[in-house]
Design a protein that fits this description.
single chain; Rossmann fold
């Protein structure tokens, strides 16, 4: 009886071992199948070529782009050209050789970037022109803010506070087509006032590379040549505005001349509260970067980006996604850039003397 019971137990044990072995084998086969499927579906590779990562603006874009791309299961390979057109071209060639599926391109010189687009398309790689439109309609998509509206917002805010007087126009880089789009928006507002004689343009300056130091030098030169009191400086971004404000300080005009800007940089937001800058333009960069990452993944999958918007580009048009900019003054900074966390109240305080903190604490 005991022998028979032992035999039964042995059979049960062997059956259990057999079932366990079959289960392990099935799990191993399933793992191999999943691994094979993963190998058949490679990760999307996005090349992001940026003219330079200098300054607060572009690093923010890059960080947000990479974060969203990673969430979508894509790998981002970034290259910064440090403002060198030849280096940017070589870096993109290397990206193309590495097997990227789509190229996101923020060019240094937009005109010279046409050859980069040609090189990408020769390898059947779609190109997104990011924040700066490449002057050729063959790019697959343009993503950026409505820069004409940026110029309109700047000039509207300025003329509401100073509808008459002497203005300096402080534009961006002459190599950047965005500079001219912003200026076109500014002139839409200014031209009727100029024609009536209400506003006089006493200096029209374009700042190489949007460089704040160059802006400082050029505005200083313009101030020394003035024969009448200056009312306003229509600066096209916060970097050039900062250079202009320093020049005004050196000439004991800080806070007496209205200054505009764009990008809602930390220093600019501090300038709003210390009274040396009238306004800046807030462009929610996280939204632009995330949108670009999503569009890049869509194009890499050979799918259509859902937009009916186009922008003029030479004799033709380019498909585009345009985001809306926001005018920011000290009156609405807390409900825009500070509320969104684009800039932190504590960081703004550190850039201000303590006697300016009360408005931020209210």
């Amino acid at each position: 009886m005991r022998v028979r019971l032992s035999n039964i137990c042995l059979l049960v044990f062997m059956g259990a071992v057999s079932c366990w072995g079959q289960t392990q084998q099935a799990q191993a086969q399933q793992a191999q199948t999943q691994q094979g499927q993963a190998q058949q579906k490679p990760e999307i590779k996005i090349g992001f070529s940026i003219e330079a990562t200098n300054g607060e603006r572009w690093q923010t874009d890059l960080d947000e782009f990479q974060m969203r791309a990673q969430q979508l299961g894509a790998q981002t390979i970034t290259r910064s050209a440090d403002g060198d057109d030849e280096l940017q071209f070589k870096q993109v060639q290397d990206l193309l050789h590495s097997g990227i599926d789509v190229l996101v391109l923020l060019p240094h010189d937009s005109a010279k970037a046409v050859r980069i687009v040609d090189a990408a398309h020769a390898k059947h790689v779609p190109v997104i022109s990011y924040d700066r439109l490449i002057p050729d309609p063959q790019v697959d998509l343009y993503i950026g803010f409505d820069l004409f509206a940026v110029g309109v917002l700047q000039a509207q805010c300025l003329t509401e506070h100073a509808p008459t007087g002497n203005y300096i126009l402080l534009g961006g880089s002459p190599l950047d087509p965005n500079s001219k789009v912003v200026r076109a928006g500014q002139m839409k507002v200014l031209q009727p006032l100029i024609d009536r004689g209400d506003i006089k343009i006493v200096a029209d300056i374009w700042v190489p590379e949007w460089n704040p130091t160059q802006a400082y030098v050029l505005v200083t030169q313009a101030l020394h040549g003035l024969k009448a009191p200056l009312t306003a400086i229509l600066a096209s971004n916060d970097g050039t505005a900062g250079g202009a404000i320093q020049a005004l300080m050196d000439n004991h005009l800080s806070g007496k001349v209205l200054v505009t800007g764009q990008d809602a940089d930390l220093t600019a937001v501090a300038h709003l509260f210390d009274g040396t800058q009238l306004m800046t333009v807030y462009k929610p960069l996280a939204g632009e970067a995330r949108t670009a990452a999503e569009a890049a993944v869509t194009l890499a999958r050979h799918e259509n980006v859902d937009t009916s918007t186009t922008v003029p580009n030479g004799a033709q048009t380019t498909k585009a996604i345009l985001l809306t900019p926001i005018s920011v003054t000290r009156e609405n900074a807390k409900t825009t850039v500070l509320k969104d966390g684009f800039q932190k109240i504590e960081s703004v305080k550190q850039a201000l003397p303590k006697d300016k903190w009360d408005e931020l604490d209210r």
